[in-house]
Structures
1.
Amino acid sequence: MFSFQLLSALSSVVLLASAAPAFPTLPKKGECCDTSAAIMDLPTNQTQLVTPTTAPLFVALGVGIQNYTCSATTLKYTSTGAVASLFDLSCIDKTPAFANIQTVAFKAWSAMPASISATTVGAKIAAPTLLGFHYFVPSPSGTGISPKWDFTSTGKFAGNSTAFVLAAKAGSISSPVAPTTNVDWLTLNNVQGALASKIFRIDTVGGQPPASCVAGTADITVKYTSKYYLY
Ligand SMILES: *[C@@H]1O[C@H](CO)[C@@H](O)[C@H](O)[C@H]1NC(C)=O
Ligand SMILES: *[C@@H]1O[C@H](CO)[C@@H](O)[C@H](O)[C@H]1NC(C)=O
Ligand SMILES: *[C@@H]1O[C@H](CO)[C@@H](O)[C@H](O)[C@H]1NC(C)=O
């Protein structure tokens, strides 16, 4: 059941999309394809993000938000986590739509009113198969929070309690495109869970906070999209 708001928001997205590259022929819901030939497109002038020697297990589109709080001492926003829905890209990996899908999805996502969820937008606009969710949990070390990619409630891993990965950042580079707008590209290593041993966040769009803040301002959320590769 779609609200009028969603229908009107989606029709404005169709207008936006007409200027963008053609939409892929969407695979059927629930369908995933072979990832053995999928390759990350990484900048060559850096050593932080290194392509693993094995093929990726999952290639996903993330559609979500980055959360920030204003530090009263530095007057800059600091990250307090993120929440995203993860959609399967394996079936469009070799199509022309793949390269810019994060940009097409971001245009749709940023045009949506706050009442429309990332899961709704991603599934309608980008890729119908929801792989799972990305969010933060208290770190097992007892200090701070850790990012988690959780496939335990969706798709073929539903009910499988080990189908997650809790990870720790192992390296990063500024986004090669518009680094003050687009969040960093990252590599993270498994700390817990059986889903994957390494995760990469690349091809980011959006997610960066304003450069400074006024002490006492409320926490903010900034929409973003990216690709995630799980190895
Ligand atoms: C981020 O903000 C959203 C929206 O306010 C909230 O639902 C979510 O729990 C927050 N997550 C973290 C890790 O702060
Ligand atoms: C690598 O190249 C990108 C794109 O040309 C550039 O924006 C970036 O600053 C370079 N990074 C380094 C570490 O040289
Ligand atoms: C549960 O998920 C893990 C991680 O994805 C996988 O390695 C394992 O084979 C799954 N177990 C079953 C019974 O499907």
Note: Helices lie at 4-18, 101-111, 118-126.
2.
Amino acid sequence: MTMMPALLTTAVLLTLLSWTLTENSELLPIDIVVKNSLQNKVPLTYTTQVAYRGILLGAMKRLMDSDAGFKFTYSENLNYGPYLESVNGVAGNNEDHTYWELLAKNSNGEFERTDVGIGCYIPSPYQQIILNFTKW
Ligand SMILES: *[C@@H]1O[C@H](CO)[C@@H](O)[C@H](O)[C@H]1NC(C)=O
């Protein structure tokens, strides 16, 4: 008799938790700007959606799966996780010292390099992200 409320509470909490993690995960818009001034390309802005506290990589995959015409590839680094290799068919390469730099707009309205990669970065709702083709 005294066990019942505790068990019930656990069941209710587990149900709520799984519901929160799956069906109810709210999607929030972010913008991804693809910039490639090195090859004189016009910047392209895409709107995609990220889950609450979700990673940028998820929003990028969601965008690639849509019909927006955005595509990217990445490799898996043992120590640093997913590494962005190409965007819209353009890949960074060692000979030219080119790579895709990840920039995010901060609260001062400035774009700054993120300290983590696409697999760890958690965008804020409505945040603007730039994938910038640049040189090291
Ligand atoms: C992006 O890369 C270009 C080319 O290297 C560079 O001039 C520019 O400062 C970078 N940052 C932004 C925000 O465009």
Note: DSSP finds two helices and eight strands in the chain.
